[in-house]
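Hello,

Our lab assistant flagged a job as stuck in the queue for most of the afternoon. It eventually completed. Since we weren't sure the result was trustworthy after the delay, we are filing this so someone can double-check. Below is the sequence as submitted and the structure that was eventually returned. Let us know if re-running is recommended.
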Amino acid sequence: GLLVVKTTTTTTTTTILGSAFGIDRSTNETLGLGILMWTDVPPAPAAPTRLIETLRSLAEVLIYGDQNASSLLFEYFCEKNILPLLIGTLNKSRHHALQLQVIQSVSIIVQNVKNDTSLYYTLSNDHINRLIQFDFDFSNEEVLGHYISFLKTLSLKLNANTVQFFFNESRGTFPLFYEAVKLFDHPESMV
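-- returned structure --
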């Protein structure tokens, strides 16, 4: 199942997505989060709308927490392995809107995290490489445009400290480079 976590700031209520495993009342109270179970995702097309809004809010909350020196939210994100859960939603639905939101959410997180540890976690464990290599529907121009923007965002984060996260040493592959090169000769001029 999926878990919807609501946190309230002085001006807004935001929803974030988390894993239902290992959450108990004491964890909820320690983090100051209101937890609601979301066990059954409704069938398409209703599911993507609810899920898309949750993913959008997730990125906003994580960036807010990272930029305002509140490490609890990002620690929760890491501890409960929410990034692979977020990327895993792509395997459950081929909706263009969901593909767009996953790309946007991960791109926003990568682009805006200020804490190096948060960035390194986000890029580690091959999750970003799996997203880079996901079989997106590039016949949809919007998906293609956001994907290209995502690759550019990642390439701007590429440096001596982060290259290790993009290179798969055991396979000798560099997915960021490989996928970008595949689009080199694309007929769409904006690519």
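-- support follow-up --
The delay was a queue issue, not a problem with the job. The result is valid. Confidence is low (pLDDT under 50) at residues 1-44. The longest strand covers residues 2-8.
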